[in-house]
Amino acid sequence: MGYTSFFKYMANRHLDGHDALVSRNFVFPLPIFVKDRVSVIKTEEAFRVLLAEYRSTLELAGIVRTDTRQISAHRHQADGISISLEKQFYDINDNACASCEVTYYATPADDRLKLHMVEYTDIKAPMPLDQMSIFRKV
After folding, report:
1. Which of 30, 9, 3, 62 is CA-nearest to residue 134?
2. Phi and psi (nearest 5°) for 63?
3. pTM
4. Are 101 and 33 in contact (CB under 8 A)?
5. What is the mean pLDDT of residues 44-63?
6. Which residue in 58, 50, 62 sits closest to 132, CA to CA?
7. DSSP the chain
């Protein structure tokens, strides 16, 4: 079974600013790995703040839409799944302008996935980590 449509739906809701629809699919505390950094988001409210910050970053970079392609999905133990995706980012002229790979670690729950951990790799996308609150150096 492919998970592409689920993640496309999530990306579209995120770009549309419907962060509550996105965040309800995550389990907290939520570890997020980006490059050599890790941060643990403790609450859904804090995650919504992060989603808004990231959306602003994408908007400033001129990104107006994304597309998602599933690379792999692997079962772990009885109900754990890791799903790796390639995300492509597009500008207003529909030119591909950035990309990244992201792996979600999840469990199935009713009609959706519950996401327990996120790992971004091979990033060729706007990701100014020091500007995002979870990665700011104190």
Report:
1. 30
2. -85, 130
3. 0.85
4. no
5. 89
6. 50
7. ---HHHHHHHHHHHHTT-HHHHHTTB-SSEEEEETTEEEEE-SHHHHHHHHHHHHHHHHHTTEEEEEEEEEEEEEETTTEEEEEEEEEEEETT--EEEEEEEEEEEEEETTEEEEEEEEEEEEES---GGGSGGG---
